[in-house]
Design brief:
The structure holds two protein chains of two kinds. Chain A is of the alpha+beta class. Chain A is built from eight helices and 20 strands. In chain A, helix 3 crosses helix 4 and helix 4 packs parallel to helix 5. The longest helix of chain B has 32 residues. In chain B, helix 3 crosses helix 6. Chain B is mostly helical. Chain B contains twelve helices and no strands. Chains A and B meet through strand 5 of A and helix 7 and helix 8 of B. Chain B: Its main location: membrane. Chain B: Pfam families: BPD_transp_1. Chain B: It is a multi-pass membrane protein.
Chain lengths: 331, 260
């Protein structure tokens, strides 16, 4: 489904993109993402397709706001039955609750449900309206971090099962990672569209890289012409060898993957290695990172398994691992 | 092992003293009433029964237009911000501020036989002086601003997002109001009705001017005092409390039961 909306107030915003499957619009806070969802739902004044000019009650959208907005005076099943009419509404509501695995809690009041349970009731309520588009505002924000991944997987499975295009807006890279399609917003503009794989492989800018949650996105400046270039990194007071086609003096956002950064013993370090001090260790079941302080900046390093950190470590960044994006003028 | 004290549990500290004093001060006039009532010769003056019927019956009737007109106004005030809204706020405040006697005089000058509105209405057969409609009119003006203020606060407490969600679920604004705004504001609205009831029933000044007849309890208290003396006031006052208290007391208890 094609979304094309133009908003004038309270901020000017124009967004045009395709929603297919579970689409995530990723953008920082204050980009107007919630405003865009409200506009599509008809709750703020805007022009655009689909649903142009229709009052909200005639727009076939299932809107799940942040915090889920269940009606506190209605039980779980009554919330789901809200948009249903007729003698069989309770029965139908129970079927929707069954689908999201909440039938056992049908008689509960919203206040007694967990964040994930409330979200599933809100999803059932939105689906019961038989929408042609689902709108989800920051669906991961009210979830318990421990169960978040499972709840998220559940949500996406249900959206896929319902077969309705869904647009989720978020600033959470974890949500972007599970999207079918990713739309990136920066400076109130759409800056990149693609599958998560494609976007992760080729982020269009430093801003996109930051939105994707990439570690080690830094600021710098290209010094020298292509062929004999260096990257000036003022925060660490360092100069790095790089290989780009950018002209001399270009301000850049640059990135180096933590796994590409090499750690050296001072005695065996290459000439242009950077002095660093150990700051913190981040251990997770999947990866281990070391936070290294380089001047004013922090560089994340993913050391080889079992690596013993020397007392005064030096870091070197392979030129072919550094990716540079020219910084847009207004940023 | 002894259980640790709950640090969030309320412990009456220094605040208990002024609170107790406030309660004592509130109770003092009624202790006076208890002591002053001549319980051995407890009896009613002629017409007291009629005054009770007038007060209860007409106050109940007055609640209807107060709620029917005040609720939409309160909702509108809670949900809309328009240029010149301060004028509406000022109008409500002036209505609250006007001394009841002065309100009675203003009502008489507009709705009385020589007033512009009264003149027109009298031709239509509606006499707004010393009549049941006049009595209800005075109560309406006495209680409406209080009701609107309280109901507005009740509606302001309803998250707008929930009303909007109802719209996205296919509800018209009117159905959203009935099924979401009203039920979520019901506790505050109940308090507003209780307040309006108390105000209407106890109104003396405005009623005295525009509806000396039919006599409700507040005016009858004044008449008893003038014609017979204090001993004829107290029994009627007891009846007044017995008649007026149940509705707001029950509403208030219902509200607090819901909140706890």
């Amino acid at each position: 489904m094609r979304i094309d909306y133009r908003i004038e107030h309270p901020v000017a915003l124009h967004a045009s993109f395709e929603v297919a499957g579970f689409t995530v619009l990723l953008g920082a806070s204050g980009e107007g993402k919630t405003l865009l969802l409200s506009a599509i739902a008809g709750l703020v004044a805007a022009r655009g397709e689909p649903f142009d000019g229709l009052p909200p009650q005639q727009r076939a959208v299932g809107y799940l706001p942040q915090g889920h907005a269940l009606f506190p005076h209605l039980r779980a099943w009554e919330n789901v039955a809200f948009s249903l009419r007729g003698a069989r509404r309770r029965e139908q509501a129970m079927q929707w609750l069954e689908r999201v695995g909440m039938a056992g809690l049908a008689e509960r009041w919203p206040a007694s449900l967990s964040g994930g349970q409330q979200q599933r009731v809100a999803l059932a309520r939105a689906l019961a309206r038989r929408p042609s588009l689902l709108l989800l505002d920051e669906p991961t924000s009210a979830l318990d971090p421990v169960t978040r991944d499972e709840v998220l997987a559940e949500l996406i499975a249900e959206v896929h099962q319902a077969g309705i295009p869904a647009l989720a807006v978020s600033h959470d890279p974890a949500l972007a990672a599970v999207a079918d399609r990713l739309v990136l917003m920066h400076g109130r503009r759409i800056v990149q569209i693609g599958t998560p794989e494609a976007v992760h492989a080729q982020p269009a800018s430093g801003a996109v890289a930051r939105l994707l949650g990439l570690r080690n996105v830094q600021r710098g400046r290209i010094v020298g012409a292509p062929g004999a270039q260096r990257l000036s990194w003022p925060e660490a007071d360092a100069s790095l060898r790089v290989e780009t086609a950018l002209p001399d003096g270009t301000a850049v956002d640059w990135h180096v993957p933590p796994a590409a950064v090499r750690l050296h013993d001072p005695a065996a370090a290459p000439d242009d290695a950077i002095a660093a001090t150990f700051e913190l260790r981040q251990t997770s079941p999947h990866r281990n990172y070391l936070g290294m302080r380089c001047g004013q900046a922090r560089l994340w390093v993913e050391p080889p398994v079992g690596y013993e950190l020397p007392a005064a470590p030096m870091l070197s960044l392979p030129p072919d691992a550094i990716r540079c994006w020219p910084v847009e003028e207004h940023a | 092992m002894t259980p640790a004290a709950d640090p969030t549990r309320y412990r009456p500290g220094l605040s208990a003293l002024p609170a107790a004093l406030a309660l004592l001060l509130l109770a003092t006039p009624f202790v006076g009433l208890l002591l002053a009532t001549d319980w051995r010769h407890f009896g009613f003056a002629h017409g007291d029964g009629g005054a009770v019927r007038v007060s209860l019956g007409y106050s109940l009737i007055a609640l209807l237009p107060i709620v029917a007109l005040g609720t939409p106004l309160a909702w509108w005030l809670a949900r809309h911000r328009v240029r010149g809204q301060w004028l509406v706020d000022a109008l409500l405040l002036v209505s609250l501020l006007t001394p009841p006697l002065a309100m009675g005089l203003l009502l008489a000058s507009m709705y009385g036989p020589y007033g512009p509105a009264g003149h027109l209405l009298e031709r239509a057969g509606l006499l707004l002086t010393n009549s049941a409609p006049a009595f209800i009119l005075a109560q309406f003006y006495a209680a409406l601003p209080y009701y609107v203020m309280a109901a507005r606060t009740a509606f302001e407490g309803v998250p707008r997002e929930l009303e909007q969600i109802a719209l996205t679920l296919g509800y018209s604004p009117w159905r959203s109001f009935v099924h979401v705004s009203l039920p979520l504001a019901r506790l505050g609205l109940a308090a507003a009705v209780a307040l309006a009831w108390v105000r209407a029933l106890g109104e003396f000044g405005a009623v005295l001017i525009v509806a000396y007849y039919p006599q409700g309890i507040p005016v009858k208290l004044w008449v008893n005092l003038q014609d017979i003396g204090l001993d004829a006031v107290y029994p009627l006052l007891w009846v007044f409390f017995a008649a007026a208290l149940p509705l707001p007391l029950a509403l208030g208890m219902a509200v607090r039961r819901r909140l706890s």
